[in-house]
Amino acid sequence: MVNKILYLFFLAIYLIFATFLFVILWALSFLFDKKKKFLKYISMAYSYGIIRVNPMLRIKVIGKENMHKKTPYMMCSNHRGMLDIPLLNTLNLNMRWVAKRELYKMPFIGVVIKMRDDIAIDRGDASSAKMMFRRCKSEVARGVSVAIFPEGTRSEDGKMHEFKDGAFIAAKMSGAPILPVVTYGTWEMGNIKESGKKLPITLLVSILPEIPAEKVKSTPTKELTKYVYSIMLKEHKRIAPDVYKEDKK
User: Fold this and answer.
1) Per the domain annotation, does 7 fall within a domain?
2) In the chain, fewer beta carbons within 10 Å around the N or the C end?
3) What CATH number does residue 84 fall under?
4) Any bridge partners for residue 96, and if so which?
5) Which domain holds residue 224?
6) In Å, what is the CA distance from 192 to each residue of 1, 29, 158, 240?
7) Cβ contact 57:78 at 8 Å
8) What is the pLDDT along the chain (249 residues), one digit of tens a residue?
């Protein structure tokens, strides 16, 4: 509990100064960074700081060879904790997030999301979903990846839950390959007692081989959704077997 309070305290201080710096750098780059490539680097630095302000957290990425930074992907990740977005933002990939609109109201982080021009979505709103699909297609056409949590919401028990079709409809409409990414450690960080883990904790990102655009296009949406879920679930059970122990009984 003490560690968590200290982390939140130093995180608040970091967010005040880092967000102020982010705004300045964003403003300076606004005129010359039309494709927002420089924005990628300041977003990476900003996100890295959110995690490393806690000295008890480490970052490890495996499967880097499966990600090509010049390829615009539909990146699909499981969602286990508040640190998922900053964790994945540390990857060297120019991308926009599909983010629920409530995040835009968060202090400091909401400002950064707006300046990054991430893709807002209102859950359960059909018109918002259509707008999201159009934005995804537009970003991919510009050579920018789109990141999304196909579960639709954060896992409460640390397990990976069934995917919704939205991410895969967007991938098919945009003509992008899918990059499956599996994370570990963010749920454990937020649930130290329940997980039984001890500090320090390594936040792990496992990048799986991409699913080519041709396969995305030719595979029916439901089938594609189940397929991506199955390969990501298999990887999640490999790197986070503890959360699935009860399923084996």
Assistant:
1) no
2) C
3) 3.40.1130.10
4) 146
5) 56-242
6) 9, 40, 12, 14
7) no
8) 556 788 888 999 999 999 999 999 998 887 777 777 788 899 999 999 999 998 889 999 999 999 998 999 999 999 998 899 999 999 999 999 998 888 888 889 999 999 998 999 987 778 988 999 999 999 999 999 999 999 988 898 999 999 999 999 999 999 999 999 999 999 988 887 777 777 789 999 999 999 999 999 999 999 999 999 999 999 999 999 988 887 655
Domain tally for the chain?
1
Residue 9 lies in a domain: no
The token pair at 191 is 């649930």
**Closest Cα partner for 168 from 135, 142, 133, 124?**
133
Tokens of 219: 């595979």
- The structure tokens listed for 189 are 């960080």
Sheet arrangement for strand 201-207: 57-62, 201-207, 178-184, 74-77, 145-148, 95-100, 119-121
Rounded Cα–Cα distance for residues 138 and 146 (Å): 10
Domain-located, residue 124: yes
